[in-house]
Amino acid sequence: MSWFKRKDKGILTPTENKKEAPDGLWFKSPEGKIIHTRELKANAYVVPDEDYHVRIGSAEYFEILFDNNKFTELDANMSSADPLKFVDSKPYPDRIKATQKKVGLNDAVRSAHGKMNGLDITVACMDFAFIGGSMGSVVGEKIARAIDYSLQNNIPFMMISKSGGARMMEAGLSLMQMAKTSAKLALLSEKGIPYISLLTDPTTGGVTASYAMLGDFNISEPGALIGFAGPRIIRETIGKDLPKGFQSAEFVLDHGFLDFIVDRRNLKSRLTTLLTMLQ
Amino acid sequence: MLDFEKPIVDLEDKLSDMKKLAKESNVDVSQAVESLEVKISDLKKETYQNLTRWQIVQLSRHPDRPYTLDYIYAMTDDFVEIHGDRSVKDDKAMVGGFGTIAGETYMMIGQQKGRNTKQRQMRNFGMANPEGYRKALRLMKMAEKFNKPIITFIDTPGAFPGLEAEERGQGEAIARNLKEMFMLKVPVICIIIGEGASGGALGIGIGDKVLMLENTWYSVISPENCSTILWRSWEFKEQAAEALRLTGKDMKKLKLVDGIIKEPLGGAQTDLKWMANEVKKSIVKETKALNALSVEDRIAKRIDKFCQMGVVEE
């Protein structure tokens, strides 16, 4: 009965011979389904059978949308300044640098132009991994310039939002990015260039109250959280629990603020159909 | 009375006691009265000219501070209030209508707070619902139709974060206003008269000229909420106020607003008539300058101004 007993004590494998399972090889869905990440990727990061849409970032969306993952990135090197000298638990520039190092992104949005099933398109996509996808000067400016690119080249613009809202560490500057992006979208609208706004999980705060809700087409993915105020704040304000499904994409569609909800696996083909109709 | 005003009020109480005593006892205290008056005046200057950012936030919420309708009634010769968004209801937190100043008609719109408990409830503490923003936009479009300049008065702790507000698209309502206000053919002047909190303020804040009264604040979040989120406690509001750079001076320096309207010593509530006259003078002056521009130029400049906002590194 001693077959399970360790003969030698301690870990004897030298560190250099240590074997590690590669990180993130398997993905566990909220319902407990285990799926290989290769399979997940092949399925547009949607868990098969469950239709659960995994939160993904700009790299994944670009891969899903652009033909052969070929695109030209715009303003890739833009990053945050610190005009307010903002300090909370640590100085803002330190926070930016630490986040850049940790997540390998320069800020919370990336923009690019390329072809989607042969159609020219500019896409700006937010990354939630970068300080909650918060909108500061860089996010505002990059979106504004991406819209400029669409204006100059007369090609459709698509915004993929995923954000907790404005970036507090840029205070008033962050607030005015709502204005700036809306101004550019007004110009895009005047020119009759299509604007598709994809609101993904989660889209709240100042992002909802500006570019995310200004699409010719406001669309979303199943189950995404979309709102102006966050659920916690609303719960505190009204002093009651919120109804089930409140602020879900389905709820927002029901109340008339989304044009349609699309399964991510069909996103590219649906957009292609729609944009082709508008040509 | 605000906490930092206590030393002033104490001295003022002392002064009135002294005067009363002198009257009753027939003692000549004129010298003491005079020196105390000088002391009070010095202390007032000392206090109000060196306000911390948090103290300015406090003044912006002073219970006696003039609200939108106070300014409108004090400035206009005639005013016709207009209600409703033509869709859901009349939002009492957002008021508006046509008013005349020196024979010229303006569309005046603003968030409205209440003075007592009942009014505060009716006005929802100046927190508009989506129908408030849609009412504001309806009025702006009407002003455009009749070629009248638009004045907005901003004074809100934020757009209302309620269940029905979400159902009726609070985010969409504000977003639409931002976009539509850029394209308005008439001059737009926005004046922050109290609190300018976040998207709820910006929702009526896209103007050719954006002005702040001296003791007001304008930022992406209130100092209290910022403190709660970043410091995980309500207690760091003073620090948060400093960090947010939310006063008129700060915002002007950052080129996020165009100008500051001076207030009387102690704040707008100490002299509504004087204050309203200052606001009126600014409105008349700015409108005149804006009317000199062509419609196209005005819109282009408005867009360009906001597109310049932000600081990045490349």
Short description, anyone?
Chain A is α/β, with parallel strands linked by helices and 279 residues long. Chain A has 8 helices and 12 strands.
Labels describing this entry:
heterodimer; A: 279 residues; alpha/beta; 2-enoyl-CoA Hydratase, Chain A, domain 1; 7-stranded mixed β-sheet; two-stranded antiparallel ribbon; 12 strands; globular; B: 314 residues; 2 domains; 9 strands
Characterise the protein shown here.
The complex is a heterodimer of chains A (279) and B (314). With 279 residues, chain A is of the alpha/beta class. Chain A has helices at 37-42, 58-65, 92-103, 137-153, 171-190, 231-238, 249-254, 267-278; strands at residues 26-28, 34-36, 46-47, 52-53, 71-74, 79-80, 109-116, 119-126, 157-163, 195-203, 217-220, 260-261. In chain A, helix 4 runs parallel beside helix 5 (171-190). The longest helix of chain A has 20 residues, at 171-190. The mean pLDDT of chain A is 93. By secondary structure, chain B is an alpha/beta fold. Chain B folds into two domains: 3-50; 56-307, Alpha-Beta Complex (2-enoyl-CoA Hydratase, Chain A, domain 1), CATH 3.90.226. In chain B, strands 1, 2, 3, 4, 5, 6, 7 and 8 form an eight-stranded mixed sheet that branches. In chain B, helix 1 (6-25) runs antiparallel to helix 2, helix 3 crosses helix 11 (237-244) and helix 4 (68-75) packs across helix 13. The longest helix of chain B has 20 residues, at 6-25. Chains A and B meet through strand 6, helix 4, helix 5 and helix 6 of A and helix 7, helix 8, helix 9, helix 10 and helix 14 of B.
